[in-house]
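Q: Hi! First time doing this. I have a protein sequence and I read that you can turn it into a structure. Is that right? Here it is:
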Amino acid sequence: MNHMELSSDASLAAGCFADSSVRLWDIKKKGRREEDDCALLRGHSGPVFNASFSPDSQWLLTCSEDKSVRLWNTQTKTNLVCYKSHNYPVWSVDFSSIGYYFASSSHDRTARLWSTDQVNPLRIFAGHLSDVNCVKFHPNCNYIATGSSDKSIRLWDVNTAGPVRIFTGHLGSVNVLAFSPDGKYLASAADDNLIMLWNLATSKKVATLTGHKGPVWSLDFSAEGTLLASGGSDETVRLWDVTGNNTAENDAETEGTNNNGSPTPSTSKELIKTLPTKRTPVFQVKFTRRNLLMAAGAYRGGESQVQP
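A: Yes, that's right. Below is the predicted 3D structure, encoded as structure tokens:
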């Protein structure tokens, strides 16, 4: 399994697999779920890396090594459209909050803006120096943010396709991004095990959240924007206070080194709680509309086996 995606209404879960398949679960169904208790979606011809549900959970976008993005109907479990424009594998895809537009990012160093009723992209966002690993819509849908293997984050205007902000500070590839509900802050996480919080108005970093022991793969703000949830390869879910009371740059003493050989700060004071899992790397954390926190991953039953 490469990724797990949860719908915002807590009704569906989608798994992206290396065998080019997508599996769809109805997580509202009560009782124990069997191994084959899911819908198998086939259409991609390469490993599937990422997925995104529409706001009403009626549609699902998936992206793959086959350079394409596919749109699925979650009710009929059928593939409706295949979008092809990227020149290399597509790493990430994200539906806008209005559901009509979506964005994708790729190994070709670009991100692209699409509408669901057109097979060609509306905008191409070029400027990163390496893979664009993740893409995220701003809550007002007028901007998108991208994170790259060049260790930078860029904020783009969807009307002009030009960059309006560039954020630097991470020491590794940027894996995931999340906007606060009010659209004033952007959270980013990278292979340097750090989470950074940025003020979009000033372009300045307002906090560095330390504590994860491995790359962070998912971020999500609570509905009121006071909490940030994170999950990643260290098999934990962590909750952070981002109200501003503790979000000054922390000056914790260093403890050892991270994967890049640079000093790793001790756990920052913004950390509220650490929730360990049972051998489960966390692919996604998601606050539902009722502000319940959900987490999804692949349980590692054995060293050589990964099960959804």
